Amino acid sequence: MTNQSLEANGIESQAVDNSASAVAAADQNSDIRQFVIFVCGKEVFGVDMTPVQEIIRVPEVVRVPLAPATLEGLANLRGKVLPIISLRRLFGFDERENDDSTRALVIDIGQPLGFVVDRVASVVGVEPSHIEDVGALTTTVRTDLLAGLIKDVGDYPMVMVLDFASLIATEFVAITEAAANRSAGAVIDAGFGAEADTEEDTSDELQLVSFQVADQEYAVAIECVQEIVQFPDQLVHVPRAEAHVLGVMTLRNRLLPLVSLRCLFGLPALEVDEHTRIVVIRLGEDAVGLSMDSVNEVLRVARSTVDPMPKLLAGQDEMSDISEICRLDEGKRLVSIISTDHLFRHASIREALTSVEQMQEEQQLSPDSSTSETDSDDEEQVVVFRLDKEEFGVPIASVQEIVRVPDELTHVPKAPGFVEGVINLRGSVLPVIDQRRRLGMSMIERNDRQRIMVFLLEGVRTGFIVDSVAEVLKIPKHAIEPSPHLSSEQAHLIARIANLEAHNRMIQLIEPSCLIGEEQRSQLAALGQT
How does residue 137 score in pLDDT terms, banded at 50, 70 and 90? Predict the structure, then answer.
């Protein structure tokens, strides 16, 4: 038996291959098998080196709702999504914080999985004659998950050989089935539904994106909004630009001028914070990013509630970009609708667009054809929302509107238990479900950042409360991959994941049609008729 010590504290990311000593031992006896010895709780385990891809420090993870309790989350390992599983949790050992010795063994049996262990001790070569049957061993670990025993390994009188193939087949059936389907050449449908829900006639409505600037609410028509993104970390200064042109950002290789609506409207500047958003407005071939304090909602409003800007005010310079006023809540809430046509006629904005074109030519950056039909086929546009620290996305076409959460939800007697309450949405009863409860997450108190995302699910309009709506994002299709199959419910609801490695982000993509079941839809439809 040979023993190669591993200095666990010094391993950042170690590919597990045959080391020089292991190869030498193998030359002496070709039957010698290599095992990685590790500690978890008070137990010492060994695993055959064959399926061990590498040993890594435990990475940061993205939590996955509806997944097994043993899953710590998903990590990014060199551009690939890696599920991270707690062996302590799986064996029912007491929880403990990770420290400098904690490692993740990356095991590949059909699909790479990372198993968190307390410490990796060594790599040993073992003759088959030194591997004994489990027999009548009494241990805290189920013997059906063990492949044998190795005795007298270094400082350890007994090492239990863990059978990861049996463990995965027993504890992660969905993973095993997914791997079997892939090996059989089966096509796993991990995409969003091919057919969008049928939308009702909205010819008498306008759809607007509303946002906040200096305690005043403004909006633009949603068809003019290309996307909504977070304020960039870096800006490029535009020479000789007017004060309200903040600079230029890069958006998928296209230079985009940023304009401060506060400065444009003659309002005092405000420090950029986590709520600041850039709404990308497009008119023809031109695009400009509007910086605003925060994005509020996506509104559907009746055309009858929209009036032209009074002529007395329309001629004033500070009002020239506002074409209409929308009256909501019986006139108590006024939303100023910005005319993108007027906005793009601003001499200063035209000058900024010209400057950007010149900068693009100088840097030999061809405009990103993200607006062309060809390139749009290579991207998906999603609405990104947050629950706790995690980001989720849904296709923008599936979101009917995004509205504020009222101070109180109306509770309906004998309503289904999964319904938080109902709200009156333009004369219709809208059932509201808390997305945290739906995904089995801990509940939080209501706050101003929360929003209700409204979906039309097979004719049933339903609202889901989320912690906040972050942005509207275009994601390249090459960055989207099937989500690991960790449970049947998770596999249907969160079938894909966007792995934006360059930005250190993982966005779990939700299939809206799976948010509620068929029986629940019938209950919601009946509730909407009450």
Answer: low
